[in-house]
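The pair is listed for reference:
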Amino acid sequence: MSVPRLRLASYNLQKCVGLDLRRRPARSLQVIEALEADLVVLQEADKRMPPRPAALPHDMVEDHGWRILPFGQPGGSLGWHGNAMLARPSVEVLATAHLDLPGLEPRGAIRADVQTSIGPLRVIGTHLGLIRRFRHLQLQAIMRHLAPLAPLPTVIAGDFNEWGSPRPLDALTPGIGIVATARSFPAPRPVAALDRVAVTADLRAAAHGVHIARPARVASDHLPIWVDLEATLSPAAATC
């Protein structure tokens, strides 16, 4: 019998502005659709200036069968500090939350507890800062947020902005190991694995990759990454 899998993807949209300097939301959504993911974590999903309207229009997303998780404003922003999540109808949303992160520049993270084909799952989406010291403080803030919560299989996904070895970040997330995903930035010729996924030991990254099919190399300065997750416990056992 095959083991259930859930495909989770992470994509920095760069506000749907491609390397051709054209804002084309339909092109960005074409890349998202091609990922064939059940759950997608997005960064830079909203325009920069207040009131930060969505770069990827709500109606366009919903017309393609995605559920927009409730981190933004109806008809306004898609997410929180540019972080957003899209889910297919098979993913049931149990709870959501968001948090501000420390740093010189405004940063945040979003959290969704969901029921999926591999059982209950907690997903954190984030876009860490450009300065290493603040990236460390931001990860520590996320871990403090998780500490008092009832345990669930957990994923942290997003643009980690870490150009070097992930080991210093890995040390800040005890019990949540960073998956060795491939390089995703810059999109035309990636040299750095800025986009990352980290998982708890009750999850296994059965497969992972970077999406390079057209028009991904021009739709953003980042390539999207994906990971196929399996539960190391059966879904039934995980809910006990």
